[in-house]
């Protein structure tokens, strides 16, 4: 049986040709740099990248670091552990303060119970009935003395008088219990106290839970001046992460050399014994004083030099801060 291998051979030939083409371009570039002589700019460079500060969310003491300088980490990786300054007793106290503030608000919203004097609507009638019963009893006593009425009638009048006296002699003023609404400003002040107590408790619980410091982005770990046992304040930058997806070569050049360099020019360099090539990405003056520097960027006396950024291969594993000697082909002078 015959097997047609024409297509396989064709693909293989194309692949080899493409590889030879890329190698040829690199070789041409390298030869150009080597033969360029005075038309090349050679300088010390450094692998540089954007840095993200990792901050502490709460005050506390650093218990341990879970990574080492230069470790590559992913988002969410635990970088350090912190013993927070908030205790369970403080949480309980803040909880009780909130409960008391809430109860106080409820009582204020109900209003204040007061006692006020009001006219007694039954006083006049009761007193009139008593006066009439008293007059009838006196009349019965007189009639009994003359023998005009029986003792039974007189006793009935006496019983009626006692009944009237039981409800009579009422004061013209009585006292009623009423609820007086609290002023709006008092209610609002109590509500503010509740909100403050809620915020204090929530912040304390967040602080108590913030025992781990994690990586916000993928990249390489860079230590700061903090060490195990150091005290932290909320917002302190404990570590830095150099973003692994934003690395480049950075060269600082004096103005005379920088004037020969422009974006798009070819550059060659060696990292860990392997030859690489790239292109000039940008040529610009450094950031003004006070701006945030990138990881690995030179500082102090070199800050006034022109910054030249050169691309790195996307498939390489490079470490920020690595020193590199780079040659830029600047063409004929």
What would you say this structure looks like, in words?
A hairpin with a 2-residue loop joins strand 11 (266-271) and strand 12. With 333 residues, this protein is an alpha+beta fold. Among the domains are: 37-52 and 236-329, Efflux pump adaptor protein, beta barrel domain (Elongation Factor Tu (Ef-tu), domain 3, Beta Barrel), CATH 2.40.30; 88-108 and 181-208; 115-176, Helix Hairpins. It has helices spanning 6-36, 88-110, 123-146, 151-167, 184-209, 255-258, and strands at 40-55, 60-65, 72-73, 78-84, 112-119, 173-180, 212-214, 219-223, 231-232, 237-253, 266-271, 274-284, 306-310, 323-329. Helices cover 38% and strands 31% of the residues. The two termini are 66 Å apart.
Short description:
By secondary structure, the protein is of the alpha+beta class. It has six helices and 14 strands.
Blueprint of the fold:
Layout: H1 6-36, E1 40-55, E2 60-65, E3 72-73, E4 78-84, H2 88-110, E5 112-119, H3 123-146, H4 151-167, E6 173-180, H5 184-209, E7 212-214, E8 219-223, E9 231-232, E10 237-253, H6 255-258, E11 266-271, E12 274-284, E13 306-310, E14 323-329
Antiparallel strand pairs: 1-10, 1-14, 2-4, 2-9, 3-8, 4-7, 5-6, 8-10, 10-13, 11-12, 11-14, 12-13
- What is the helix content? 25-40%
Rg of Cα set = 48 Å
Q: Treating each run of at least 4 consecutive H or I residues as one helix, how many helices?
A: 6
Let me know the largest β-sheet.
6 strands, antiparallel, barrel
Can you list the strand order of the major beta sheet? 1-10-13-12-11-14
In the CATH classification, which architecture of the domain at 37-52 and 236-329 applies? Beta Barrel
Described by the principal axes of the CA atoms, the overall outline is rod-shaped
Looking at CATH, the homologous superfamily of the domain at 37-52 and 236-329 is Efflux pump adaptor protein, beta barrel domain
Give the CA-CA distance, first to last residue. Answer: 66 Å
Fill in the CATH topology of the domain at 37-52 and 236-329.
Elongation Factor Tu (Ef-tu), domain 3
Order of helices and strands: HEEEEHEHHEHEEEEHEEEE
Quote the beta fraction: 25-35%
Could you name the CATH class of the domain at 37-52 and 236-329?
Answer: Mainly Beta
The stretches of 5 or more residues where confidence is low (pLDDT under 50) are 1-28, 30-36, 289-293, 298-302
Overall average pLDDT: 79
The count of strands amounts to 14
Q: Class by helix and strand content?
A: alpha+beta
């Amino acid at each position: 049986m015959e097997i047609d291998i024409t297509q396989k051979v064709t693909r293989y030939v194309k692949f080899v040709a493409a590889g030879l083409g890329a190698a040829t371009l690199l070789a041409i570039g390298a030869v150009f740099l080597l033969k360029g002589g005075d038309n090349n700019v050679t300088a010390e460079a450094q692998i540089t990248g954007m840095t993200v500060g990792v901050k502490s969310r709460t005050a506390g003491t650093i218990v341990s670091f879970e990574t080492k300088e230069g470790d590559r980490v992913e988002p969410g990786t635990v970088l350090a552990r912190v013993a927070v300054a908030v205790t369970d007793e403080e949480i309980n106290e803040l909880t009780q303060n909130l409960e008391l503030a809430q109860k106080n608000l409820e009582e204020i919203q109900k209003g204040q119970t007061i006692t006020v004097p009001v006219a007694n609507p039954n006083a006049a009638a009761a007193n009139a009935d008593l006066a009439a019963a008293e007059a009838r009893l006196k009349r019965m006593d007189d009639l009994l003395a003359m023998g005009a009425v029986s003792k039974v009638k007189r006793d009935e009048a006496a019983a009626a008088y006692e009944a009237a006296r039981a409800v009579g002699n009422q004061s013209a003023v009585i006292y009623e219990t009423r609820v007086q609404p609290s002023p709006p400003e008092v209610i609002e002040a109590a509500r503010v106290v509740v909100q403050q107590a809620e915020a204090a408790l929530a912040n304390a619980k967040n602080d108590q839970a913030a025992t781990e410091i994690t990586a916000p982005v993928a990249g390489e770990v860079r230590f700061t001046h903090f060490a195990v046992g150091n005290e932290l304040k909320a917002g302190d930058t404990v570590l830095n992460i150099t973003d692994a997806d934003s690395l480049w070569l950075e060269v600082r050049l004096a103005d005379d050399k920088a004037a020969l360099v422009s974006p798009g020019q070819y550059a060659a360099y060696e990292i860990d014994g392997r030859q690489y090539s790239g292109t000039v990405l940008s040529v610009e003056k450094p950031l003004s004083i006070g701006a945030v520097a990138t990881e690995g960027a030179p500082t102090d006396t070199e800050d006034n030099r022109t910054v030249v950024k050169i691309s790195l291969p996307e498939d390489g594993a490079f470490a920020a801060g690595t020193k590199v000697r780079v040659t830029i082909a600047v063409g004929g002078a």
